[in-house]
Amino acid sequence: MIEVSHLYKSFDGVDVLTDINAKFYDGKTNLIIGQSGSGKTVLVKCLVGLLMPERGELMYDNRDFLKMDKREKKRLRTEMGMLFQSAALFDSMTVLENVMFPLDMFSDKTYRERARRAMFCLDRVNLTAAKSKYPSEISGGMQKRVAIARAIALNPKYLFCDEPNSGLDPKTSLVIDELIHGITHEYGITTIINTHDMNSVMGIGENIVFIHKGVKEWEGTSKDIFAAQNEKLVDFIFASDLFKKVRDVEMREAASGGAAARRG
Amino acid sequence: MLKALASVGRYVSLMWRVFARPERYGMYFKQYLKELQQLGVNSIGIVLLISLFIGAVITIQIKLNIESPWMPKWTVGYVTREILLLEFSSAIMCLILAGKIGSNIASELGTMRVTQQIDALEIMGINSASYLILPKIGALMTMIPVLVIFSIFAGIIGAFASCWFIGIMPATVLEYGLQYMFVEWYVWCGFIKSFFFAFIIASVSSYFGYTVDGGSIEVGKASTDAVVLSSVLILFADLVLTQLLMG
Ligand SMILES: Nc1ncnc2c1ncn2[C@@H]1O[C@H](COP(=O)(O)OP(=O)(O)OP(=O)(O)O)[C@@H](O)[C@H]1O
Ligand SMILES: [Mg+2]
């Protein structure tokens, strides 16, 4: 479990995150949602240590990340996997080499074992056929899947995904979402996903943290998100017409259901 | 001025990270071999080509300009050798390489930065500065002195070629001049200088590439800045080193 408390981050005096408190659970897909520019990426970067917050506490299973020395941080980092918005594959390496890279760096296994593990991860994302291609030769969705395979190569305890389905079509997005969801449950990973895609929210939102202008406004699950009273969240969700319709239908059903219950 | 000082500070602290103890020597060595190939071996062609032509041109120029009844003809060979050994094959060659290799390093690292590949390394717990930059510095400091030797030889072959094919003077006279009062220390000077130049090219270009912030425009700017500043520093270092080694 990752616990964030009273986290502040600003750039040149402009507050980007103010007093963030949140919990991210093991074996669940934890979503951070919010509009573009609300500070999701900054929050995740603070979580993984790419940015230093000004104040606050950041506990990884009761280990305080911000108070760790270099060596402890390094050890913790080998337990993290991250999926970047732009996949961030190493373009000088083939798909297989990309997935093997963390193993080459950190595991003491033989070459055969490392290659087998990499192939296993590639198989998990259905990409064994593309193993000798270079990142520039495969599609964006495939790159994302390779990045997932690379992120899980070392069996991470914590997986961070920054907008895993930005720039992908709805169907491919679904594939990626399900992949991440499946892996999270299979290995009990604490997964944190940044997104503004409502399909992901409905599909895999097991724990949702809503951020608006750097302030946490709401948290809950995909089940109670439609019933949420927070105005900013409501604005965010119902920015799309489809969800407005869904909400109207649900409200009508709830109203008639309530009436029926009263009658009965 | 303050900004320049801040940059120097950032450069020093980056180098501090670069020279940390490698985590995994095997991986660094693999990277080192790759850089030897990419930065060094791939530059051999251009070094040979340029040196060959410049060697020939210097010989022709000297011949035309010092031709007089009082000057022995072998002087041409002597002067050509001194120019090649003392300046052309070390300093000028490194200036040319700064253009080729410096822009290559800065744009490669800059692209890795803006596409978050460097962040990806950091997340894995890898000292990205050291992993990416140390093999480049090592590879250049190995390869550039070798390239300097190549350049000297190619320059001399160029000088001979101007005798054989253009016939500006008898090759034997040129050869006598080339060997006249040869001082071995001058070769070492070129060698020593090139070590410093190699470090300047690799570290300065890496600094500009590694610290890119933004997008493709910044990468382009970093690559230009890398070439300009490495060239200026090479010229400056040349002045200082020449004074120290020869003065
Ligand atoms: N390095 C930085 N320097 C200065 N300001 C920054 C920096 N990084 C982010 N910001 C600012 O922080 C705010 C939040 O940015 P962030 O990237 O976290 O948004 P986001 O929620 O991830 O948006 P998106 O959905 O578009 O990715 C923005 O206003 C941005 O301008
Ligand atoms: Mg973002």
Summarize the structure.
Chain A is of the alpha/beta class. In chain A, 42% of the residues lie in helices and 23% in strands. In chain A, helix 4 crosses helix 5, helix 5 packs parallel to helix 6 and helix 6 (170-187) runs parallel beside helix 7.
Can you give a write-up of this model?
The complex is a heterodimer of chains A (264) and B (247). Chain A has 264 residues and is of the alpha/beta class. Chain A has two domains: 2-79 and 158-170 and 180-229, P-loop containing nucleotide triphosphate hydrolases (Rossmann fold, 3-Layer(aba) Sandwich), CATH 3.40.50; 92-155, no CATH class. Chain A has helices at residues 40-48, 70-77, 95-106, 111-124, 140-152, 170-187, 198-204, 231-237, 241-263, and strands spanning 2-11, 14-24, 29-33, 55-60, 63-64, 80-83, 158-162, 190-195, 207-212, 215-220. A six-stranded mixed β-sheet of chain A has the order 6-7-8-3-9-10, with helices on both faces. Chain A has a four-stranded antiparallel β-sheet with strand order 2-1-4-5, covered by helices on one side. In chain A, strand 7 (158-162), helix 6 and strand 8 form a beta-alpha-beta unit. In chain A, helix 3 crosses helix 4 (111-124), helix 4 crosses helix 5 and helix 5 (140-152) runs parallel beside helix 6 (170-187). The radius of gyration of chain A is 20 Å and the shape is globular. The relative contact order of chain A is 0.16. Chain B has 247 residues and is an all-alpha fold. Chain B has one domain (25-246). Chain B is built from nine helices and no strands. In chain B, helix 4 crosses helix 7. Chain B is elongated. The mean pLDDT of chain B is 93. Classes of the chains: A alpha/beta (264), B mainly alpha (247). The interface between A and B is medium-sized, with 26 and 16 residues. Bound molecules: adenosine-5'-triphosphate and magnesium ion. Magnesium ion (MG) is lined by residues 40-41, 162-163, 194 of chain A.
